Amino acid sequence: MDExxxxxVDSDWKQQAQAEKARLSEKESVKAEEEGSKQDxxxxxxxxxxxxxxxxxxxxxxxxxxEPETGRAIVAPDxxxxxxxxxxxxxxxxxxxxxxxxxxxxxxxxxxxxxxxxEVSKAVAQAVAEGKIKxxxxxxxxxPPPGPIAE
Length: 151
Prior knowledge:
The structure is a single chain. By secondary structure, the protein is an all-alpha fold. The protein has four helices and no strands.
């Protein structure tokens, strides 16, 4: 018998996550259109690609993007926190070396991801408190270690 805890999250959270996903996708779409959305797939990878990759990882583990193979949401705040913290390190280490657009992109993405992280963490904590999931269980149910998310 499979004893992997299942995460049950209320529909309000799901609606908020979907709205956030749509808003981030819209921002990326607008930016892509402004830059001439038809870019050469063989072009060199740039800073924006790195930021978008880490952002996608964070959104995946916040449950905002379905897992490609199964189509199911993954909620693993500890893994999302790692991606967000990597973006924060990137922001710190590149300070003064980015274009205004790159800096603004990174700052706004970090703000959005941190907000979504807090909301997801609260929802997971509530689900644990209500006995819907077990703390420290497998399958992404574990909470991240205590402490603030890197800023």
